[in-house]
């Protein structure tokens, strides 16, 4: 069981989301792949978050990965997303997101991330969460205090295409993305052809 990425994003009712804080563990990828994989983690996170309605929880499976996202909505307009392998259980993933977002809201004043177009929020606790909850059993204590989480309210999508808008294609989003370097776009195309380990393959 593995957590690859944990992120907090600022959402809007229309328009792109803003990455506020993120942590990743890319040790299972080769040194030369990590830059491209990190870009795709961010791209994948934004793509899924922007297609998750306020207050909705959903899990999106793609290739060897599952993205669990909760768009918390409310006055803070933030969302949490965790990218894991398929073995990582759903309930601890969402318990972790809930705790992470609660901690973020408590420790980070809302004014620091709503007044800037592209804020980067110092929140070192996200690294602690990433490391501590690699073992989902560590989330047991969280789960006991998160009994209101109803698994039936989590929407499971088998592929990223199922959350894209009608007519959208992932290949086209990759080609148009300003957030991905030419090297990462080439990495995506090569990985797709070889059906190898790419975050969104």
Automatic annotation (TrEMBL):
What sequence ranges are listed for the domain V-SNARE coiled-coil homology? 141-201
One Pfam short name: Synaptobrevin
Is the keyword Membrane assigned to this protein? yes
> CDD domains, per this entry?
Longin (cd14824), R-SNARE_YKT6 (cd15867)
According to the UniProt entry, its GO molecular function terms are: SNAP receptor activity
Biological process terms in GO annotation: endoplasmic reticulum to Golgi vesicle-mediated transport
Q: How is the protein disposed in the membrane?
A: Lipid-anchor
Which protein family is named in the record?
Belongs to the synaptobrevin family.
The chain positions of domain Longin read: 9-130
* Entry GO CC: Golgi apparatus; plasma membrane
Assign the protein's first listed, main location to one coarse class: membrane
Q: Which domain of life is it from?
A: Eukaryota
What range does the record give for the signal peptide?
1-15
Subcellular location per UniProt equals: Cell membrane
Keyword tags: Cell membrane, Coiled coil, Lipoprotein, Membrane, Methylation, Palmitate, Prenylation, Signal
Q: PROSITE patterns given for it? A: LONGIN, V_SNARE
Key word Cytoplasm present: no
Q: Which organism is it from?
A: Serpula lacrymans var. lacrymans (strain S7.3) (Dry rot fungus)
This protein is called what?
A: Synaptobrevin homolog YKT6
């Amino acid at each position: 069981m593995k957590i690859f990425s944990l992120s907090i994003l600022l959402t809007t009712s229309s328009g792109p989301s803003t990455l506020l804080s993120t942590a990743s563990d890319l040790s299972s990828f080769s040194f030369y792949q990590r830059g491209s994989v990190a870009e795709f983690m961010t791209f994948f996170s934004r793509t899924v978050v922007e297609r998750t309605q306020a207050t909705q929880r959903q899990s999106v499976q793609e290739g060897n990965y599952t993205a669990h996202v909760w768009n918390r909505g409310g006055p803070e307009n933030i969302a949490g997303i965790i990218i894991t392998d398929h073995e990582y259980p759903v309930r601890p993933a969402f318990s972790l997101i809930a705790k992470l977002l609660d901690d973020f809201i408590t420790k980070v004043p809302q004014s620091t991330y709503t007044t800037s177009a592209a804020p980067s929020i110092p929140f070192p606790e996200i690294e602690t969460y990433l490391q501590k909850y690699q073992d989902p059993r560590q989330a047991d204590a969280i789960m006991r205090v998160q009994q209101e989480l109803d698994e039936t309210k989590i929407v499971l999508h088998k592929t990223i295409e199922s959350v894209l808008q009608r007519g959208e294609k992932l290949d086209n989003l990759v080609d148009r993305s300003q957030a991905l370097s030419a090297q990462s776009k080439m990495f995506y195309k090569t990985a797709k052809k070889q059906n190898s380990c790419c975050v969104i393959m």
